[in-house]
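Renewal narrative, Specific Aim 1. Our central claim is that a sequence can be written position by position from structural information alone. The example that follows is taken directly from our test logs and has not been curated for this report. It begins with the structure tokens describing the chain, in the order in which they were read.
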């Protein structure tokens, strides 16, 4: 059932994210969503009031990734030009613009909580940015104190880009069941998923894949990762090892997969199909 619909004339919505629930509040669904558009604008919509609450313009190019900070107080957005902006939905102001990935589109942004002095840096939040050129930056932040410190910078090797072929995206995500680790997939020397330890500063595990992945999601409830592929395939991979489960049914390459917050459902999308799987 369609509950509400928002339309922005002459602009394409490129990415969106739900505002996270406040800590300790259960049973209530977030009623705000942020969307990034092709003209470089960000719009915050209220589902309950069915209206646009805020419009900001932190980018001069199309947005390619967007997320909220873990407390919902900041919006992190990435553009086609590789710039990452940090904006406050309370004030409507952009407080940081980071140019470390400049020149390559941002393909993923994600935030996660951490202990304040964990990893030897201040801040209650870790966040990562991934760009199409196979680079991942990891940051520690305390937005209330205006702190944003680079914790790690990863660059993954790959053979020379093949002429005329569309390369798979570079994607990374924090590992919910392995503290201080992240998972990376993208065009590289081998078709594999890499587990990287932020403490050891090295790749600690590799999982062989049937092809280069086009989508990635990690379960918040159990040690499983979901991977989409260009061959119309969706794979559920137990970690650290185990026999994978493959699911067919898509009409085209799998562009997106996302676990539900409970981990009991998995949503996947291709060109014209949106599938929901019970796990």
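The sequence written for that structure reads:
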């Amino acid at each position: 059932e369609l509950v509400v619909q928002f339309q922005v004339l002459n602009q394409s919505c490129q990415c969106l994210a739900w505002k996270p629930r406040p800590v300790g509040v259960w049973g209530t669904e977030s009623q705000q969503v942020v969307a990034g558009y092709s003209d470089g604008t960000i719009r915050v919509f209220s589902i309950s009031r069915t209206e646009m609450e805020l419009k900001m313009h932190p980018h001069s190019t199309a947005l390619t990734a967007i997320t909220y900070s873990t407390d919902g107080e900041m919006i992190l957005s990435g553009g086609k030009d590789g710039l990452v902006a940090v904006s406050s939905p309370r004030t409507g102001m952009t407080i940081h613009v980071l140019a470390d990935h400049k020149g390559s589109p941002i393909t993923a942004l994600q935030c996660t909580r951490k202990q304040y002095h964990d990893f030897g840096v201040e801040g209650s939040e870790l966040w990562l940015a991934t760009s199409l050129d196979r680079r991942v930056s990891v940051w520690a932040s305390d937005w209330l104190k205006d702190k944003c410190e680079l914790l790690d910078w990863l660059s993954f090797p790959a053979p020379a880009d093949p002429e005329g072929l569309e390369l798979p995206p570079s994607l990374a995500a924090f590992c919910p069941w392995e503290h201080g680790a992240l998972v990376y997939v993208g065009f590289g020397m081998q078709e594999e998923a890499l587990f990287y330890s932020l403490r050891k500063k090295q790749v600690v595990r590799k999982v062989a894949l049937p092809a280069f992945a086009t989508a990635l999601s990690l379960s918040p409830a159990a040690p499983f990762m979901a991977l989409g592929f260009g061959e119309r395939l969706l794979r559920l991979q137990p970690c650290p090892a185990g026999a994978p489960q493959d699911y067919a049914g898509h009409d085209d390459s799998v562009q997106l997969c996302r676990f539900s917050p409970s981990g009991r459902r998995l949503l996947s999308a291709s060109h014209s199909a949106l599938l929901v799987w019970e796990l």
